[in-house]
Amino acid sequence: MKTMTCIEDLRETAHRKVPRAFIDYAEAGSYAEQTLRANRADLERIKLRQRILCDVSARSTATTILGEPSALPLSLAPIGLCGMQHGDGEILACRAAQQAGIPFTLSTMSICSIEDVAAAVDKPFWFQLYVMKDRGFIRALIERAAAAKCSALVLTVDLQVLGQRHNDIRNGMTVPPELRIKNIIDIATKPAWALSVLRGKRKTFGNIAGHVSGMESVTVLSEWTASQFDPALNWKDVEWIKSLWPGKLILKGILDVEDARIAAKTGAAALVVSNHGGRQLDGAPSSISALPPIVDAVGSDIEVMFDGGIRSGQDLARALALGARSCMSGRAYIYGLGAAGQAGVARAIEIMRNELDVTMALMGVTKVADIDRHVIASL
Ligand SMILES: Cc1cc2nc3c(=O)[nH]c(=O)nc-3n(C[C@H](O)[C@H](O)[C@H](O)COP(=O)(O)O)c2cc1C
């Protein structure tokens, strides 16, 4: 694992180990992928100030997220089909996050269910909710998350309809999934992956299977899911969800100042500035360019989190400098999971922690709270 020196190493290894269809699914953005590319390009443009001869001997990457201690200003983002990057992927990633002392978010579209993960880990995790047309099912999901003692509900608000990802269609990652000959041949060349998935607890959407009647087959299940995303979702539904959820609520997928202002009035504990990793509105601004105006508008009213393009500790510093209180990582930990399961996720977190620590030292900063716009050399 020591030879995995950066997130890019984990990415390259994951590309060798995980079948093409699932790697493409993880890497893709929607349509021409302009927003996906902008997420990285705009982060890389931000230059940090190098400061010298400051005493940085006593420094810490620790902070709080939603009032709880966290070893890093980082949480693991919800990733659908995480358990297809590696068998039991959700459990392994959650364990790695908890051992590293940071929050993990389980997706509605996970392979392992809420109950599977809760039974396999020691501490509470966050649950991400997609609101579907079947509101009885949503109520039941929220009750299940509460029963499993999830410590926050992450309500994703940027997926009322699905942005198209071309490669998912080409690879047969459509709904229902198509088993094409080229996918089968590819899987045959990835035996370690196949074994891990075969041995995994589940092979389909764990939160949904068995909870909607007549949903035993993967095909029917997938069709139901695709038809269930709700274009009618609106702010009134956020009120309804808030009335059902007893704990902390996080609104994920906000990119516009007007929306951020409304979000801050809902009583949610936090919002996540996010464009879903460039997978929804292609042509939308990069997450990092949307962050400063949102922080200026609502940063003192609600905790502002950030995701989109984080691949290093330097990127964490950039987002914090522009006002994020913490960041979510999506693909960076998914590469670790595909590369080496739980150890790979642990390595991804460790890489970003070490990079943040050294970056802080070289910027002359000793505390996460001191990473603000003063550490930026140019935008
Ligand atoms: C493969 C994949 C699956 C995702 N699935 C979900 C999901 O189920 N729910 C959700 O709210 N966001 C989902 N997202 C978005 C991530 O939570 C996060 O916003 C995004 O990955 C951040 O960008 P990054 O990958 O550049 O870190 C997904 C992203 C990827 C790459």
The coarse overall form would be globular
Q: How many whole angstroms does the radius of gyration measure?
A: 20 Å
The helix-and-strand class reads: alpha/beta
Distance between the termini: 35 Å
Determine the number of helices (DSSP H or I, runs of at least 4 residues).
15
Low-pLDDT segments: none
In terms of DSSP E residues, the strand content is: 5-15%
Strand order in the largest sheet: 4-11-10-9-8-7-6-5
State the helical fraction. 40-55%
- What's the main sheet like? 8 strands, parallel
Order of helices and strands: HHHEEEEHEHEHEHHHHHEHEHEHEHE
Please state the average pLDDT score: 94
Q: Could you tell me the number of beta strands?
A: 12
Ions and ligands: flavin mononucleotide
SSE inventory with pairings:
Layout (H helix, E strand, L loop, with lengths): L6 H11 L2 H8 L6 H12 L1 E2 L14 E3 L2 E3 L3 E3 L12 H12 L4 E2 L7 H7 L5 E4 L5 H13 L4 E5 L9 H5 L10 H8 L2 H9 L18 H11 L6 H10 L3 E7 L2 H8 L5 E4 L13 H12 L4 E4 L6 H9 L4 E4 L1 H33 L12 E3 L1
Helix pairs in contact: 1-15, 4-15, 12-13, 14-15
The structure holds flavin mononucleotide.
The site of flavin mononucleotide has 24 residues, from helix 2 and helix 15.
